[in-house]
Amino acid sequence: ADVSTVEQMSICIRHVNSDVCGKVHVYEDFVGFVAVANTTGEMLASTILSRVADLGLDMQNCRGQGYDGASNMSGRISGVRARIERDYSEAVYVHCFSHCLNLALNAACALPAVLNMFGTVQSVCVFLGASPKRLHFFKAACTSTDDESMDGEQTARRPRRPHLWGETHWGSRADALEVFQDNFHVILRALELVHEDALELVHE
After folding, report:
1. Separation of alpha carbons 106 and 113, rounded Å
2. What letter does residue 79 receive in the DSSP assignment?
3. Greatest CA separation found in the chain?
4. End-to-end Cα spacing for the chain
């Protein structure tokens, strides 16, 4: 569902084409989001078939369909996969490899060492981002950190504020960890500034 709580389904078309030399090229194009009234297998299957027809494509030429492992998508009796296969037997279902990878990575994140690492990173992100004063220290650290502590690639990039990630999508975690790693020296300096400020308050 989007921010207006409208349920949407994304549709992508994977297709092949050959050039003048006979070399086959594989393409995958995002078609768009389609609003759906509900997420039952019947509704989603009819929506997919209707959208494909609107594109002027013949489902008789379809040789595959890929979704996640949810029962309304991959169910053998009433899932989208089963409903489409009844009319188009050559549209073989394959569990989305990207989704499989996402599930594997999320499972790996349940390991104690990885879980502790993510917990530490998340705690630091929350600590710096939840307070305007601490966020000010982070911004100050961005300008005060010695450029010699950064390599050439890091100095070419402007420091980005560390942020949290989504719980189900690995891509958001990878982006958050990259930001954290790239700005690690800035984060350390920001924490030092917070510590120094706390010591001054104690002495006062």
Report:
1. 13
2. S
3. 79
4. 51
- Tokens describing residue 194: 């917070």
Nearest Cα neighbor of 37 from 6, 68, 12, 10 is 6
Q: Tens of pLDDT along 37-61? A: 899 999 999 999 999 999 999 999 9
Torsion of CA 37, 41, 47, 53, to 10 degrees: -170
pLDDT digits (tens, 9 = 90+) for 100-146: 888 888 788 788 988 899 889 989 988 988 888 888 888 888 887 65
pLDDT at 162: 76
Contact indicator for 7, 37 with CB cutoff of 8 Å: yes
In sequence order, what are the residues at sequence separation of 6 or more whose Cβ sits closer than 8 angstroms to the Cβ of residue 50?
none
Of the candidates 58, 124, 66, which has an alpha carbon nearest to the alpha carbon of residue 93? 66
Tokens representing 32 are 């768009």
Place of tokens 């949407």: 8
Asked if 176 and 163 touch (Cβ cutoff 8 Å), the reply is yes
Cα-Cα-Cα-Cα dihedral sign, residues 37, 40, 92, 105: positive
Report how far residue 38's alpha carbon sits from residue 44's, in angstroms, rounded to the nearest whole number: 8
**Tokens at residue 18, please?**
């050959």
pLDDT in tens, 144-166: 765 544 454 444 455 677 777 76
List, as own/partner pairs, every contact residues 106-115 make where C-beta atoms lie below 8 angstroms and the sequence separation is at least 24, other chains included: 106/168, 106/170, 109/173
CB atoms within 10 A of CB 175: 15
